[in-house]
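anyone seen this seq b4? input:
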Amino acid sequence: MPVYDQTQSLGHLTGLSGRLFNTLLTRRFSAAGIEMTAEQWGVILLLLNHGAVTQGQLAEMLYLEKSTVSRSVTSLEKRGWVVREKGAEDGRHKRVALTENATGVAERCAEIARSVLEDAQAGLNPEAIASSHEQLSGVIRNLRSLNER
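predicted toks r here
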């Protein structure tokens, strides 16, 4: 008998569901002719919701390594979806901002993301979904608190 069965771990299940979700999302973006990964979509979505921020802030908000965010931003910049601009208060810190080109793409990506979420939750009880959301939000709060120590 194994000492620890990771398949019964909440961490394993949430990690696996996240990876499967991101894989499907990236595949659906590609099928729609949008060359974007789920991770890059996370950057776009954050910028849509928070406005221009520095790469360091992006990394903190997304809980990703700065180098990972840098690669995503560079790729999005090459596609004309984001720009790096000098910060108003400190020109040394460049802020990442969305371009007008990103607006139409973001609308299409949001529709695709909604459809993936609907498909992922198909057949699940709405009350169970709400309860899962509440419980996972609690786990996230706990983990954020522990990581800030």
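Residues 6-123 form a domain with the Arc Repressor Mutant, subunit A fold (CATH 1.10.10.10). Helices lie at 10-31, 38-50, 55-62, 66-78, 100-120, 126-147. kinda curious what u guys think
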